[in-house]
Amino acid sequence: MTEILDIPLHPLAVHAPVILVPLLVLLGFAYVLVPPLRRHLGWAVAVLTLLAPASAFLAIWSGGEFANDTDYFPNGWTDAIREHEAHGRRLLWILVGVIPVWWLFAALDRGRRAALKRAAGDAPAADGEAAKPDDPAATGRRIVMLVLGLIVLGLLAWAGWTVFQSGHSGAEMVWGR
């Protein structure tokens, strides 16, 4: 089993997703729901979409190593450990699902902002012609962004609930009476 200073890695590693996932949920909701904040939050949310699943993977891997240690768990995997592990795996797959949906939403938003800037005359159009005040892709982009935004919000809410379930089931194993 992997240890740091004679402490199993899992109790240390779980702190990363416990912090990063709720932070991703909060900033992700703000990014999707408050368009003026997108320019300020974009890179933070982008980094979190990659760090949160990586931290969940580390927690799952270290948890498996910890649960297989017969010094701590002489009876093997109990039902509580299996439930806790299932919550962790579900969280990982939810976070992996957030990645392409959020990045596509962010790319469409960036395209929307670039079209608005061209239409305002701040920059020439990409093809060298003057920008037209009406963006022909605006309606389609708005519909796709609405659908993707709803999916992202749903996945983020589900991730928030699942990290709570995973943390609660782990705490019950350690602190439950």
Automatic annotation (TrEMBL):
Name of this protein? DUF2231 domain-containing protein
Q: Where are the transmembrane segments?
A: 12-34, 41-61, 91-108, 143-164
Which terms are listed as keywords in the entry? Membrane, Transmembrane, Transmembrane helix
